[in-house]
Every structure is written in structure tokens, then in C-alpha cells.
UniProtKB/TrEMBL annotation:
Xref: PANTHER family: AMYLOID BETA A4 PRECURSOR PROTEIN-BINDING FAMILY B (PTHR14058), AMYLOID BETA PRECURSOR PROTEIN BINDING FAMILY B MEMBER 1 (PTHR14058:SF5)
Family matches, as Gene3D superfamilies: Pleckstrin-homology domain (PH domain)/Phosphotyrosine-binding domain (PTB)
Domain of life: Eukaryota
Organism: Pipistrellus kuhlii (Kuhl's pipistrelle)
Protein name as annotated: Amyloid beta protein binding family B member 1
Length: 86
């Protein structure tokens, strides 16, 4: 990301086994922000863009965010070493 004129900052992180849950959480957050923009726009004037039903979007976004956060939280917990498996 740009940090100033001719200055850039790079942030990196590692997700195991992959970043799918984090990606889904980011996607859900973007969808929620987009829905809020559509709602604000429709209140200001009539929108020419067809908006999906707010209830279905909210339900889908809420479920995706919840699942992504739970998965991310689970990946941050330390792994138990020495657990005996049968």
C-alpha cells in the first residue's frame, strides 16, 4: 500500500493450511459495505441498479463472516502437542 510519495509498505501474513476462510471473511465484509452503500444511495434517490433482497444478503454475509471469524480464531489457537491419538 502507498505510504507516501515514492514510499510503499508491504504487509505479509501466513495462513495454514490456506487463506480461504480469511478470504471469505474479507469478501463478506466487502459485500456488507456494498449493501450499505446501496441502502444509502436508495434513501437519497432512486437507484438504477437492482439491489438483491436485503434479508438474503444480510443472512448470507452474516453466516460467511461468522464462519470466517470462527475459522480464523481456530487457526490462531496454539496447537496442542503430545495429544495421544488412538
Amino acid at each position: 500500500m502507498a505510504a507516501g510519495p515514492a514510499s510503499f509498505c508491504c504487509h505479509m501474513f501466513w495462513c495454514e493450511p490456506n487463506a480461504a476462510s480469511l478470504s471469505e471473511a474479507v469478501q463478506a465484509a466487502c459485500m456488507l459495505r456494498y449493501q450499505k452503500c446501496l441502502d444509502a444511495r436508495s434513501q437519497a434517490s432512486t437507484s438504477c441498479l437492482p439491489a438483491p433482497p436485503a434479508e438474503s444478503v444480510a443472512r448470507r454475509v452474516g453466516w460467511t463472516v461468522r464462519r470466517g471469524v470462527q475459522s480464523l480464531w481456530g487457526s490462531l489457537k496454539p496447537k496442542r502437542l503430545g495429544a495421544h491419538t488412538p
